[in-house]
């Protein structure tokens, strides 16, 4: 329904004082004089409903039984607050299985990496390479000797002493090592005294004693030397040997890709002396790494989904409706509850298609609510949205208009109100009753007789018409039917 309401009702009251009419020789006429400095409003009026500018659905991303519901209708909530908890038992089982798969993938990768590490052939002692058994390009299998290394930094000499002299020797005693061919001596230490005597040449009998000493730099394994401990001298000379010797073996099969040693090379403990090429092992390690990453991603995705089973509030607000409770089955995508923000309270009015073109964003609106005791509450607002699509019912199409309230006051969600949208307004103008105007003509009394007067009209609304020119405040305008 459309109604026209005039803002300045005082003018109409003034006209009523003149409706008693005035008389002339030709008859009686009901006349009024134009109202000056008046206000004309054209309005569209309809009913509306108090609602919210935006409502927020609390919608789960997963399906399942609702284990808990923490809110009731009307409860205030904050953004991120847990509202519903959905049973995640099946997902947790999947997470447990994914963790087992991850552990298995980690073990497989560690095994593959260990196997690849064995492709680097390493010396575990420091010393000198005494022999090399392979060449670059050779194919080797696990356990194939690659090289022999001796530690020439610490040397040993084992020589016999008279049984009586050996009885007085013990590990740790200082010894003098002599090299007849060099004419040099070095200091050593008794490291072992053998338990039983041994028969020597010439019918002699002695006990072997092992001595150790640090290589002064020029002594080689295989040289001849003799020794004395205190006043006891050895019975025979012996051969110098390296204290430690090691064979370097290939731990994996494959082709020798690099070989960084040769006979006489010095090596240190932990040094890689050769590299074996085995594509099967390296490919297996790469595949194991990919499998591990896949298992990690799968677990992360499942753990991320776990958060979906706690449904939270999308914004601060109040619960308008709650459709599901504890024990119900929640379906993914089906709203469980609806929220709104109290500050978004507004009015929605459905405007008839005949008048919707007069309504626009930014127009002022008056909202009134009449209580059960007849008390009237009035509010101001502004049109903030006009829907482009209408809803047709009973052959009439209505378009929803949203009005934002300056102050919601005592209005509550769901109240039915009267909406008056001011579509046009003129202030400080001259007006006459709209019924007195016919097109661009009004009748006035001139010398006691009716006379037509051409006028320029403006806005019509609230039962009055704006007169822009053609009348003066003193003119007597004849009302029709008089």
Describe the structure using short key phrases.
4 helices; 15% helix; mainly beta; eleven-stranded antiparallel sheet; single chain; 482 residues; disordered N terminus
Helices and strands in order, then pairings?
Elements: H1 9-16, E1 22-24, E2 27-29, E3 31-32, E4 35-52, E5 55-58, E6 64-69, E7 76-77, E8 82-86, H2 89-117, E9 120-122, E10 127-132, E11 139-140, E12 145-162, H3 163-167, E13 174-179, E14 184-193, E15 198-199, E16 205-214, E17 224-229, E18 232-233, E19 238-239, E20 241-249, E21 254-259, E22 266-267, E23 272-277, H4 279-306, E24 310-312, E25 317-322, E26 329-330, E27 337-340, E28 345-352, E29 364-370, E30 376-386, E31 391-393, E32 396-405, E33 416-433, E34 441-446, E35 449-454, E36 456-461, E37 464-469, E38 477-478
Antiparallel strand pairs: 1-2, 3-38, 4-28, 4-33, 5-27, 6-8, 6-26, 7-25, 8-24, 9-23, 10-12, 10-22, 11-21, 12-16, 12-20, 13-14, 13-17, 14-16, 15-16, 17-18, 17-19, 21-23, 25-27, 28-32, 29-30, 29-33, 30-32, 31-32, 33-37, 34-35, 36-37
């Amino acid at each position: 329904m459309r109604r026209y309401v005039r803002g300045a009702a005082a003018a109409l009251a003034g006209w009523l004082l003149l409706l008693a009419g005035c008389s002339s020789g030709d008859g009686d006429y009901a006349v009024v004089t134009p109202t000056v400095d008046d206000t004309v409003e054209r309005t569209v009026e309809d009913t509306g409903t108090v609602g919210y500018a935006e409502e927020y659905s609390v919608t789960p991303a997963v399906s399942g039984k609702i284990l808990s519901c923490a809110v009731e209708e009307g409860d205030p909530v904050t953004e991120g607050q847990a509202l519903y908890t959905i049973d995640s038992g099946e997902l947790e089982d999947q997470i447990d299985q994914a963790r087992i798969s991850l552990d298995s993938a980690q073990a497989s990768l560690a095994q593959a990496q260990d196997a690849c590490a064995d492709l680097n052939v390493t010396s575990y002692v420091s010393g000198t390479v005494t022999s090399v058994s392979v060449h670059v390009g050779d194919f080797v299998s696990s356990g194939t000797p690659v090289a022999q290394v001796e530690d020439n930094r610490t040397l040993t000499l084992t020589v016999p002493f008279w049984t009586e002299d050996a009885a007085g020797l013990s590990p740790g005693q200082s010894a003098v090592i002599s090299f007849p061919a060099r004419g040099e001596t070095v200091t050593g230490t008794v490291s072992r005294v053998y338990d039983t005597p041994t028969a020597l040449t010439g019918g002699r009998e002695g006990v072997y004693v092992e001595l150790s000493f640090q290589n002064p730099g020029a002594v080689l394994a295989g040289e001849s030397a003799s020794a004395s401990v205190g006043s006891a001298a050895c019975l025979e000379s012996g051969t110098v040997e390296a204290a430690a010797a090691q064979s370097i073996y290939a731990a994996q099969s494959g082709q020798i890709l690099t070989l960084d040693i040769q006979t006489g090379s010095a090596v240190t403990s932990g040094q890689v002396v050769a590299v074996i090429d085995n594509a099967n092992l390296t490919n297996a390690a790469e595949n194991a790494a990919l499998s591990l990453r896949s298992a990690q991603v799968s677990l992360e995705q499942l753990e991320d989904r776990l958060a979906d089973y706690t449904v939270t509030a999308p914004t601060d607000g109040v619960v308008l409706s709650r459709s599901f409770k504890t024990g119900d089955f929640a379906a993914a995508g089906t709203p469980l509850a609806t929220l709104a923000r109290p500050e978004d309270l507004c009015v929605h009015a459905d405007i008839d298609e005949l008048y919707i073109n007069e309504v626009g964003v930014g127009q002022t609106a008056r909202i009134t609510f009449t209580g059960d005791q007849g008390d009237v509450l009035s509010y101001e607002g502004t049109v903030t949205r006009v829907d482009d699509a209408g809803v047709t019912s009973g052959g009439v199409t209505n378009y929803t208009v949203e009005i934002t309230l300056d102050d919601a006051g005592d209005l509550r969600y769901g109240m039915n109100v009267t909406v008056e949208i001011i579509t046009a307004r003129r202030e400080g103008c001259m007006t006459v009753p709209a019924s007195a105007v016919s097109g661009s003509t009004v009748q006035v009394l001139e010398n006691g007789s009716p006379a037509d007067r051409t006028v320029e009209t403006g806005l019509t609304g609230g039962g009055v018409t704006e007169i822009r020119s053609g009348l003066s405040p003193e003119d007597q305008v004849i009302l029709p039917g008089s």
